[in-house]
Every structure is written in structure tokens, then in C-alpha cells.
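Notebook, p. 212. Picked up where the previous page left off. The plan for this session was modest: take the two constructs that came back from the sequencing core last week, fold each one, and keep the raw output in the notebook itself so nobody has to go hunting through shared drives later. Recording the first one now, exactly as returned: residue sequence, then the C-alpha cell string.
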Amino acid sequence: MFKKKSIFTFLQAQVAAFVGGITDYGLMILLTEVFKLHFTFSILISGTVGAIINFSINRFWVFKNQSGYSSYINSQLFKFALVVLGSISLKSFGTLILQQSFQIDYRIGRLITDSFVSYGFNYPLIKYWVFKVNEKQNAIESN
């Protein structure tokens, strides 16, 4: 049962990442192509919007950490913000490196970079650090 639940949680997290990611990617292209921002700035803005969507879906659907305690929410938001900051930095830098060093179009470079950042950085930190439920939190929420 534990294994089945872990797989289901992983799949739910991928749906959350996909929805946030599609928003992020689409907004990045809009800001770069229509509003002529450099793609690294577009990634900063679109990554922030995508992160808000991703956080909300993860909090209320995937990991169901909906405690009303403001200190708990603030802790999650702070941790999530740090993950997002790292994620946006890695995505911007990785996309830039692929574009400048290998002349890979920024849209393709972004997809390549995203696949590594999402699975190797975002998911583990979000699951095991941001939305990790400890015994103390379980006791508070069950009362």
C-alpha cells in the first residue's frame, strides 16, 4: 500500500508541476516573443506565476497540508519560496548556457533544463522538505 500511495503522490505532483509548468512556459514565450523581454527575465516572471499555481495545487491537493496555523503556512511558503528561487536560477542559468554554448533555441533549452530541475531539484525538495509532515504537525491536525 505504501508503494501505491507513493506512486499516486508522485503522479499528482507531476500534474501540479505540469499545470504550473504550462503556465510558466506559455507566459515565458509570451513575455519574450510579444513583449520582447530577454528570456532570463521572462523566466523570472513566469516562474513566479507558475510557482504560485504549483504551490496551491501541491498544498491543497497533492500533499493536503492545509493546516490553518499561520506559522505552518508561513514556514511552507518560506521553504517553497527558497525552492522556487533555486529553481528559477537553475532554469535561467541552464537555458542561458544551452543557448550561448550550444546555440540551442531558448524554448528547447528551457524544456531540457526543466526536465532536470523538476525531477532532480523541485520534486525532492517539495516532497521531503516543504510539505513534509512531522509527528508534531500530525498531532496538531488530528486534534
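Okay, moving on. Second construct, recorded in the same format:
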Amino acid sequence: MEQLSNTEFGSYYQNYIEKASNYNSILEGLESTQNELLEFYNALPESKLTYQYEVGKWTPKDILLHLIDSERIFAYRALRIARNDKTSLPGFEENDYVPQANANMRDLSDLLEEFISVRVSTLTLFKSFSEEQLLRIGTASSYPVSVRAIGYITIGHALHHKQIIEERYL
């Protein structure tokens, strides 16, 4: 991983950055976690896909669609900052998205297809960035963030949620 400065992301994202630290590059991490998540979800028992370990908690399908939605938002932020847009980008309330997304009504294969599509798009976007663009810093969710930090946040966010499923759902 490139040596990120703590000025390139808000402290809220430290956990995600740490989880992504095993990867030498953003592209390697995005490709690897795509494969890891596909294998992981395909191996989950059908009975666990809509399981809640506690009332009101998300199911693994909810989590997968949350990863998809979040990645779209992260990629949008990266695009705007890379293009030198100085607009402060708002946060989003993830807990408002999940009940509206109806993930549990969808087939796993459909969700995984959407995940692959979004991940391929994210990979293509990050491949297009120059070193200068990757180092650009903007503001998202009231915190400074670099384009490259957004890449590692995307990777770490997926790994974080995979770990939660492993620890609390299986």
C-alpha cells in the first residue's frame, strides 16, 4: 500500500484503511476483494442469506447491497475529487438505504452480478487516474479525503463487512 498520510482521510475510516493495508495497490486490492467476496457469498448457506443475528440487524444480502451502494458513492466521490471538483460532498445515511433496497427479495445471483458490474466500473475508474489525480484531496462527509484513500476505503469497507458476517452470522 502506498504510504497514506492521516491527513488524507478522516479518523472514522482508519479501520477500513488498516484492513486494506495488505495490498500493494488499489487495483490489486479491488480485484482480490472482488474474488474473495464472490467466493464467500457463493459459499454461504442459503439459510444464512436472510438471517439476522439480532432483531433489526442487516442480513448478509442487505450487507451485500450496502457494499454495492456504498461503492457507487465512493466511486462518485473519487471521480469528483480526481476531476478537481472542490465542492464539499455530503455524507449519506446508510441505515436509510437498506430498508428501501429490498435486498432480501432478490436472488443472490442477481446481487452478485450487480456487485461485479459495480466493481468492474470502479476498477476501470481507478485505472484511469493519474498519480496526480490519486493524490488530490477533497472533502466528503465533512472530512478531507484523497482519491487514493477512497480506493483503500472501498477495499477495507468490503473486508470489514465480510469479517462481521464471519463473526456474527456464521
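Notes on construct two before I forget. The domain at 6-168 is CATH 1.20.120.450 (Four Helix Bundle (Hemerythrin (Met), subunit A)).
Flagging for discussion at group meeting.
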